[in-house]
Amino acid sequence: MKYQKPWKSFEEQLRLLKVRGMNIGEPNQARSYLERIGYYRLSAYWYPFRTFQLEMNKQNNKLVLKAQDDFYKNTHFLDAVNLYLFDKSLRLSLTDALERIEIALRVDMAYLLGTKDAFAYRDKTLFHPTFANKKFRGKPAFEAWQEKYSGLLKRSKEDFVKHFHTRYPGEDLPIWIAIEIWDFGSMSQLFSMMQTKDQAQIAQKYGVQDFSVFASWLRSLNYLRNIVAHHSRLWNRNIIDQPKLPNLGQIEWCDNFIGKQNLIAKPFLLIAIVRHLILGICPNTHWHIRIEQMLESFPELKSDKTCSIKDMGAPENWQEWWTQKTPA
């Protein structure tokens, strides 16, 4: 299919929304939001207010719900804007928390691997042979990781890297320096190749008994970090890289999600994982309190189509355990 939708001015965009049943409100204000945020980005936030209709899928002859152009009655332009602003605040708060998690885990990994060798990250024999040899894009995972690290090192503009190479030309960075140029994805990937006892040692520090669960959490948090770093919609997104959960009873709050795929596929679980790790890193933090207050201030919408934090995958009793000081 060839793309044929024409360019539209801001005035034409507003007229189109009005024809489809949206209450534009004050036109100059609405145009201002379009100029600053953009029609396409905002369209992700008014998508839930579009009507849906059962239609036959011609490829498999099955009925599917398909979004229509029209909006539910009483849908206001500001409904979408307020959802966007809520989502923006949520992403900014997660950026803060993910930075703390990433830095703490860098210390954990560098400290543990550094006890084996200052250049442990270069030595395949110090990693789990099965995990390190697992194919990743056609190459053993450890080799693929080394190529990624070399790219990060080459692109680095950090003064400490230049200083090290000036003083020690041709030498590898020791792990406690090298880890500072890894991104979250690189850290998560190397963690997944570590020996099981090493993964378990770090996981247990954060109250997670199953190292494979913890490794999946890091992988999912890297996915979350990419969403917030690229300013993408989060609040009701369907999560692609879904985390594993521990066995029933191992981590009390996780029991609320076990066996509930509709909740596992939504972002609230990832936010709860962030809460768990932040409480492990900073027991006196108020980050989770600020998030609770933010969730409780979910915007009031005028549309006949209701939206709430349930669309984020929040379980019914989330407030009963959210503000506990320990990540139980």
TrEMBL record:
The protein's matches in Pfam families, at most eight in alphabetical order, are given as: Abi_2 (PF07751)
InterPro entries xref list:
Abi_system_AbiD/AbiF, Abi_system_AbiD/AbiF-like
> Could you name the domain of life of the organism this protein comes from?
Bacteria
From the Swiss-Prot or TrEMBL record, give the protein name: Abortive infection bacteriophage resistance protein
Q: Which organism is it from?
A: Marinomonas alcarazii
Taxonomy, top ranks, is:
Bacteria, Pseudomonadati, Pseudomonadota, Gammaproteobacteria, Oceanospirillales
